[in-house]
UniProtKB/TrEMBL annotation:
<keyword id="KW-0539">Nucleus</keyword>
<feature type="domain" description="DNA replication complex GINS protein PSF1 C-terminal">
    <location>
        <begin position="146"/>
        <end position="189"/>
    </location>
</feature>
<protein>
    <submittedName>
        <fullName>Partner of SLD five 1</fullName>
    </submittedName>
</protein>
<dbReference type="InterPro" id="IPR056783">
    <property type="entry name" value="PSF1_C"/>
</dbReference>
<dbReference type="InterPro" id="IPR005339">
    <property type="entry name" value="GINS_Psf1"/>
</dbReference>
<dbReference type="GO" id="GO:0006260">
    <property type="term" value="P:DNA replication"/>
</dbReference>
<dbReference type="InterPro" id="IPR036224">
    <property type="entry name" value="GINS_bundle-like_dom_sf"/>
</dbReference>
<dbReference type="InterPro" id="IPR021151">
    <property type="entry name" value="GINS_A"/>
</dbReference>
<keyword id="KW-0235">DNA replication</keyword>
<dbReference type="Pfam" id="PF24997">
    <property type="entry name" value="PSF1_C"/>
</dbReference>
<comment type="similarity">
    <text>Belongs to the GINS1/PSF1 family.</text>
</comment>
<dbReference type="Pfam" id="PF05916">
    <property type="entry name" value="Sld5"/>
</dbReference>
<feature type="domain" description="GINS subunit">
    <location>
        <begin position="49"/>
        <end position="134"/>
    </location>
</feature>
<dbReference type="GO" id="GO:0000811">
    <property type="term" value="C:GINS complex"/>
</dbReference>
């Protein structure tokens, strides 16, 4: 049945958790592309047949006309479904740049099509360029934190790093009391993670923390 494969892609989007991605369904996506090519081929063939019979394409109402209309409308429907599938995934991919940062965890990258990886890369580059030109960091939390300092536990050895006016050795499982602005860069890079009550974190930062904990645990 025409359109069944395309509707399957939209059902995947509808059933997925908000703000999350399921793996890109290359098999079904390619099947829909092939179906579109077949519709176009059949449409062109029927139109040529009518032209060869010297029939007026705009006024003739025979089986070839209705067959061409079915293939044309089916092609347009598949096109809309493919665009909706890509658009919804692109929206989520854009949100990852703000929630996670410029480097995506391996488990998320595995779910992306190669074109989506390139899209995320270009989107991140555009944000970086804009921030540089405007001289303002758009990635920081919009809501000021209640406490400028947080306690963090290091999940992986990072080594000696310079933080403002002092340096600190970030070794695995060590605990530190750091300025929030210093710690956030490592939260985004899978380094240190808060080890205290999530109520002390802004919602956006806590969401990042939860994703990183799951990511680290999965490895």
């Amino acid at each position: 049945m025409y359109g069944r494969r395309a509707s399957q892609l939209l059902k995947e989007i509808d059933s997925s958790e908000a703000g999350q991605l399921v793996p890109f369904n290359s098999d079904v996506f390619d099947q829909v592309i092939r179906e579109c090519n077949e519709h176009n081929s059949q449409f062109q063939s029927l139109i040529r047949k009518m032209v060869e019979q010297n029939l007026d394409i705009e006024t003739t109402r025979n089986e070839d006309h209705y067959g061409a209309a079915i293939h044309h409308l089916s092609l347009l429907r598949n096109k809309r479904c493919l665009m909706a599938y890509m658009y919804n995934r692109a929206e989520v991919i854009q949100s990852f740049r703000w929630k996670i940062g410029p480097v995506l965890p391996h488990d998320i990258q595995e779910k992306l099509h190669f074109s989506e990886k390139e899209y995320f890369k270009n989107h991140s580059a555009a944000i970086k360029s804009y921030i540089s030109e405007m001289d303002i960091d758009l990635t920081v939390d919009m809501v000021p934190p209640k406490d400028p300092y947080i306690q963090v536990r290091v999940l992986e050895d990072i080594g000696e790093v310079s933080l403002g006016d002092h340096s600190v050795s970030l070794t695995k499982n060590s605990l530190h009391f750091l300025r929030r602005t210093d710690a956030e860069q490592f939260i985004s890079q899978d380094g240190a993670l808060p080890s205290f009550s999530p109520a002390m974190l802004p919602d956006a930062l806590f969401a990042t923390m939860k994703r990183r904990v799951l990511y680290q645990g999965a490895s």
